[in-house]
Specification:
The chain is of the alpha+beta class. It contains 16 helices and 13 strands.
């Protein structure tokens, strides 16, 4: 019933288009007769839709005046084989883990038997649209944008043609608190040179101002690149990564107790209390687990950089969770297919996954305070420091 109703609606819409064309040229005559008239129909063809294949017959018109007037339907353009939403749906199935070889039976289950024209080559051709979109996206203009916080990380993917690919990703929060993917670039591991290339690409797109704070794991390459290219940007080590690194160096039986001690550090209300919890943790466990405590001690200041920013932002900037949650989706997709394809396919697929997830991201809490951060207003233990307090401190 739905397919029949859709077929009737489509036929009426196309007939309405023809009527509009005939009305437009009704004053055009040849030997006293109307010049633009109906002239039968083109051969019937089918269009793949979300309801299955729908037959359609497109009318033809005859131009007696010889002015080259033709009828082309906006609803059923020449060579249209499937509706736009289905064109987007097919590569989306691939993105969610359906391989090109399984696409035909998957769509038959959704749209009914007899769905044709969905070979592996067809699906691959539709995916090429992502590559073009990605190429345009990485050249977009950023000259009018200001990003206050960024999160950076790298993820490795196996690809058929290029062996292992390291994807370097930066997510930024602009001055309105909205988070978006800033860069998805392939690099040689997570080296300093690779991260410098990422930053320089953003600068070539017009990014004028360095972020106020960068959050990431302990990869030295990224922090060396930030120090060189954005020397004024403060550095925040991710507490999730640091916790995992510390716990990997102690027996499983001790992990809950040490995890609780680490939790006391980054959940302290003030930097002073965090220092106390820090020293307490190291004093308690240093003798038995020196490697774990050395791992904790080496990044003390950068692990507590968030205290210089508004307290309402702490939950966002203490960890690289915004980027890790997106990586989980990428890893799931690449695991399903074992390997992603070529370098270009991997890049475009990762970008598509991330920018799709971006549509559901929420704004930062307390985003109005970002204006204070940009203006350079000082914060101590998450609270704004007034001018008289600064003078007393001086």
């Amino acid at each position: 019933m739905l397919k029949q109703g859709a077929q009737q609606l489509l036929a009426k819409a196309v007939e309405a288009e023809v009527s509009v064309l005939l009305e437009k040229y009704k004053e055009l005559t040849v030997d006293g007769k109307q010049a633009i008239v109906r002239n039968g129909h083109l051969p019937e063809r089918t269009i793949q839709t979300g309801l299955g294949d729908i037959p359609v017959k497109v009318p033809k018109v005859r131009d007696r005046a010889g002015k080259g007037i033709k009828f082309n339907s906006q609803f059923v353009p020449p060579y249209l084989k499937r509706t736009k939403n289905l064109e987007e749906f097919i590569p989306w199935l691939y993105l969610k883990g359906i391989s090109t070889g399984d696409m035909q039976p998957a769509l038959e289950a959704l749209l009914g038997n007899g769905v044709g024209g969905l070979s592996s080559n067809t699906v691959s051709r539709l995916k090429q649209g992502w590559e073009q979109d990605y190429d345009q996206w990485r050249k977009r203009d950023l000259s009018n944008r200001r990003f206050v916080y960024i999160w950076a990380d790298g993820v490795y993917c196996n690809v058929r043609m290029d062996d292992k690919l390291c994807l370097l990703v930066i997510i930024g929060s602009d001055d309105t608190g909205r988070k978006e993917v800033l860069a998805v670039v392939d690099g040689y591991r997570e080296s300093e040179a690779s991260w410098i290339e990422v930053i320089e690409q953003l600068e070539s797109q017009g990014l004028k101002f360095p972020p106020e704070l960068a959050t990431g794991d302990g990869a030295l390459g990224f922090w060396k690149a930030v120090t060189k290219k954005w020397p004024t940007t403060k550095q925040q080590r991710c507490w999730v990564h640091k916790t995992a690194n510390v716990l990997n160096k102690v027996p499983k039986s001790m992990q809950p107790k040490i995890k609780e001690a680490l939790h006391d550090i980054w959940m302290a209300e003030t930097r002073k209390n965090a220092y106390k919890a820090y020293d307490s943790c190291i004093n308690r466990f240093e003798d038995k687990y020196p490697k774990a405590m050395k791992c904790l001690a080496k990044d003390k200041e950068s692990l507590l950089a968030f205290y210089d920013f508004p307290a309402v932002h702490w939950q966002h900037i203490r960890t690289s969770n915004p980027i890790e949650s997106v990586f989980a989706t990428v890893r799931l997709r690449t695991t399903r297919t074992k390997s992603c394809g070529s370098r270009t396919t991997t890049l475009s697929m990762t970008w598509k996954l991330m920018t799709t997830a971006q549509n559901n991201w929420r704004r930062l809490r307390g985003y109005r305070l970002l204006a204070d951060v940009i203006r350079g207003i000082k914060f101590k233990d998450g609270e704004r420091v007034e001018k008289d307090q600064l003078q007393e401190t001086a």
